[in-house]
Fold this protein.
Amino acid sequence: MGETRDFGGWATRFNIKCADGRTIKPGAFDEMDGQTVPLVWDHNHKSVLNVLGHALLHKRDDGVYADLFFNEDTTQGQNAKALVKNGDVKALSIFANQLKQTGGDVTHGIIREVSLVLAGANPGAFIDTSFAHSYDGEDPDEAIISVYVEDDVFELAHSDEPAKEEPVPEETNKENNDMADTDVIQHSEGGEETIEDVVNTMNEKQKKVMMYLIGEAAKKGTKESNDNEGEKDMKQNAFDPETQGATLAHGCLGKEEQAMIIADMKKFGSLKESFLAHKEEFKVEDVIMHGSDIEYSTDVQDYMVNDPSFLFPEAKSLNNPPAWIKRNTDWVAGVLNGTKHVPFSRIKSVFADITEDEARAKGYLKGNKKTEEVFTLLKRTTDPQTIYKKQKMDRDDVIDITDFDVVAWIRSEMRVMLDEEIARAILIGDGRSSASNDKIKEDHIRPIYTDDDLFTIKQFVTYPSTATEDDKAKSYIRAAVKARKNYKGSGNPVFFTTEDVLTDMLLLEDNMGHRLYKTEQEVASAMRVSKIVTVQVMEGIKRAVDNVDRDLVGIIVNLSDYTVGADKGGQVSMFDDFDIDYNQMKYLIETRISGALTVPYSAIVIESAEE
């Protein structure tokens, strides 16, 4: 080329395994032999003032060697030349794209520029990649590839020395000095403050957290590098102004910018807020910066070396203890409190049926023999069953949970679920298979829904396939009213149904579009019941009768006609025990009861099916 070089050095080296497991193979940059590319400061492409000169690249057996020339007519070029000559800057780095990879080997790439950098992030060579856009509109792979160089790797040239092709000495494994080499923070007012000065403003607790985060970041970086080993498709990484998307750069955020963010941490209240405040100023949005000191990532919210959220105050719970996510159980108390309770568990009901003709009074004719009245005696006995719920917790957890009484919390859940199960068994049964060991047997707690016809009147409604929801709702109200003629229960009963059925009834309109029933109580009055109670567990309940699936619409009953019996000691009781072998606290809630309708024709079940 004929020019007199200012210095020379290795732009990159071959057969060096990178931190992420990739290796730059010989021949990867062969087509760059003899090419001239810009010499830039710290890969900073935001301003032409950062262009320091140019680099002449040479293919070597060990890597790519560069003869470097500073601009003689620019202050930046001459300042950089002085820094290199004085030994203040000792590292080169290249920006390459159109990278190709076979397994873990990088086999091809185009070097776009060579940069002077303060220090290599690692001894040897490294490649880090991320998504970016290429120079010519495609989506090639791009990377910053850096080599740490010692004092004897840069060859300073005399003013009359031409560019030369001799290889420089082999690379060394000198450790990076990280933050210690560049502690100066230059402020606009001309004063200097070191990073040590900034760190000294922290209290002991903050310093310990900072050291912990540094250690965690180092471990995290190693793990992520190992996880990526063997990846066949290299991602993209760009550093030109046209780059869009998240990119990854070494040294893209300078030491002064990093230090300024740390220095302003106090001013903005946290490191995170300081970073966000300077983000626009340094144009680092969507850029993942891996420097030798500080890592920032707007994608994963890493604003220091690792996660500054470790420094945030603990979140305050708004509901201590935790609130339950459960079915609506408002109806449960009404069922349990509405039933009749007796202090014995074996319930026997005896009835004499005097509705038949044989029980009627007779007229007498003189001279005829008088005959006796005949009636049928009916008897039903219901035996008790134990219903329980069991929980356990490690005693260590019980002791460690100090924000609330976890034992009381668990006991409340056990009682809620036990009560719901008993109320469900009384109305519709527990729904488990008859073969299940956990089933509440229907001859111990007899469900109103499926009880014998002597006790529960079955009112069956059919409708055509073309029936609307309004048609169905009207037929349900009509069925409830007509069934009352057979009802022999106590007082004014309650209608237990689902939200869907009640909603359809409330939405009924006349021919003018006016609502027929403005309130639930108006619907109840139309059905001749005292009130309507919605029961979530009744949704979707059906049974097969004569090979026809009947949907449960609702149950009309006065629960005072349903008797629940429990012997002394069979009432709801809570027990707790300690398992010394497993260091566990065990909790049990149980009751032993029986239940059945004890008044004939005291309930009405409304069911429906399509014709």
User: Anything to note?
Assistant: The chain has a mean pLDDT of 76. The longest strand covers residues 584-597. Residues 7-177 form one domain. The radius of gyration is 43 Å.
